[in-house]
Amino acid sequence: MGMDQATDKTILIVEDELFVRMIGADALEEAGYAVLEAGSADEALQVLEKADHVEVLFTDIRMPGSMDGLRLAEVVHERWPNIRILVTSGDVRPSPDDIPDDGRFLAKPYRFQSLSRELDTLLTE
């Protein structure tokens, strides 16, 4: 995907580890995406209620708070069916049934090329 194609796409990255979230957000911004950040599922829902045009939810599975990333993915899929979903984890391997339709899973640690490829796939489906 060229820089110009990505520029109008907004990604919400949900990750409780600040350092991991910052690295991911920086890499996505460098690739031309608009990035919103949240440190928990609860914060992510607050962001989504205010934001419009979020194309992708990119969420870690294990997080503190009232729900994990898989539950967040379900809630987002129900309330905002147009948002595409990419979940990630270093220790949980969800079954396809755990991820909403058309959602994808990316194992940690991931390389930016892998993340970029998953996003391209999600955004062109």
From TrEMBL:
Where in the numbering of this chain does the Response regulatory domain appear? 10-123
Which residues are recorded with the post-translational modification 4-aspartylphosphate? Answer: 60
The record's annotation in Pfam families points to: Response_reg (PF00072)
Q: Tell me which positions the record assigns to the signal sequence.
A: none
Q: Enumerate the Gene Ontology biological process terms.
A: phosphorelay signal transduction system
KW 4Fe-4S (keyword) present: no
The name of this protein is Response regulatory domain-containing protein
Organism name: Sphingomonas taxi
